[in-house]
Design goal:
By secondary structure, this protein is of the alpha/beta class. Helix content is 43%, strand content 14%. β1, α2 and β2 form a beta-alpha-beta unit.
Length: 331
């Protein structure tokens, strides 16, 4: 059980019909609730990149997510939080937190790695299902070639081949079906520094998998970083958006990264993502338009940072973003 480190400061804050029915059951949780707000370990520099960020105990991250006023969290890289379901549920519940989902990267451009990726994804899926989560967030894995051109992708030069696209659709369909059978709603997260970054790539990916099987996790910051407007994404995809990551983008830092040809991780180090409300993303409009089409799931605040920087204070950032959402958007 958690020791209360801050005392009174803590705040609680074409498929067959059977497959379709399983998917609807996995994905209808949002219709029973208003938007809840969470945060994730990535805001503390914990991400699927070797040697990225300082080593921060998971207990500190959980404490600070709760103390900053959030109601839920995502899993982080497998093995960061406890992987025994009862221990994980106990750690979270002692802080008033709910496990919402997990971000799972898959090497979509490399079919020879898909079978191993399937098995690894199932490890995460079973942990999520046994720990009470209802969502799994699938993504392409970051690669050196795509991180090098992130924010300025030439799709004809930097994109996947038709055969790679076909294989990507097949593995995502297989994974999503199995996750649905476990009671998990599968969504896809477009991501800077991967082969699914630009608005055109997002559209093609979503067209590669049946919408009843795979929803969209709209990441407002990554969609903007990849050259799109997340407000347009809401208009285009509407109810297919079944999970939301809220990020804001410091436009001068993004423009500098594009002009100086920085890679994705260097852009993150230089502060391309900022606290909510301090950047160029129209977050109010995104929430307003999503609510209008019936969205009532989770909004997970994320601010990708490099915690080696002395100027980065994840807890303070998380507090400021939570205050913005309460005061300016009302969630």
């Amino acid at each position: 059980m958690r020791k209360d480190l801050r005392g009174d400061k803590r705040r609680r804050a074409s498929i067959d019909q059977e497959d379709t029915d399983d998917t609807e059951a996995a994905c209808d949780e949002g219709s029973q609730m208003s938007i809840k707000v969470g945060n994730a370990p990535v805001s503390w520099g914990v991400m699927e990149v070797a040697d990225w960020g300082k080593e921060i105990p998971y207990s500190k991250v959980m404490d600070e997510i709760a103390d900053a006023g959030y109601a839920g969290t995502e899993l982080g890289p497998l093995g960061y939080f406890p992987t025994e379901p009862d221990q994980l549920k106990s750690e979270l519940s002692s802080r008033g937190l709910q496990l919402v989902a997990s971000f799972v990267p898959i090497p979509l451009a490399y079919p020879e790695r898909h079978e191993v990726a399937y098995r690894e994804t199932m490890k995460v899926a079973h942990l999520l299902a046994e720990s009470g989560a209802l969502l799994i967030v699938l993504a392409d894995e970051m690669s050196k070639s795509r991180m090098a051109v992130s924010g300025r992708v030439d799709e004809s030069r930097d994109g996947m081949t038709d055969s790679q696209w076909n294989a990507a659709g097949q593995i995502l369909t297989r994974i999503a079906k199995t996750c649905n059978e476990l009671g998990l709603c599968a969504v896809f997260h477009h991501h800077a520094g991967t082969f699914i970054e630009t608005p055109n790539e997002v559209e093609r990916l979503l067209n590669s998998v049946h919408p009843d099987l795979l929803g969209l996790c709209l990441d407002t910051g990554h969609y903007f970083f990849g050259g799109g407007d997340p407000v347009d994404a809401v208009r285009l995809y509407g109810s297919r958006i079944r999970h939301l990551h809220l990020k804001d983008v410091h436009l001068p830092a993004l423009e500098s990264a594009r002009r100086k040809a920085f890679g994705f991780l260097e852009a993150v180090r230089r502060g391309v993502f900022c606290e909510l409300g301090r950047g160029a993303v129209d977050l109010k409009k995104v929430i307003q338009d999503l609510t209008a089409v019936g969205y009532s799931g989770w909004a997970i605040v994320e601010q990708d940072v490099d915690t080696h920087s002395q100027s980065v204070n994840p807890f303070e950032n998380a507090v400021k973003s939570r205050q913005y959402l309460r005061k300016e958007i009302g969630i």
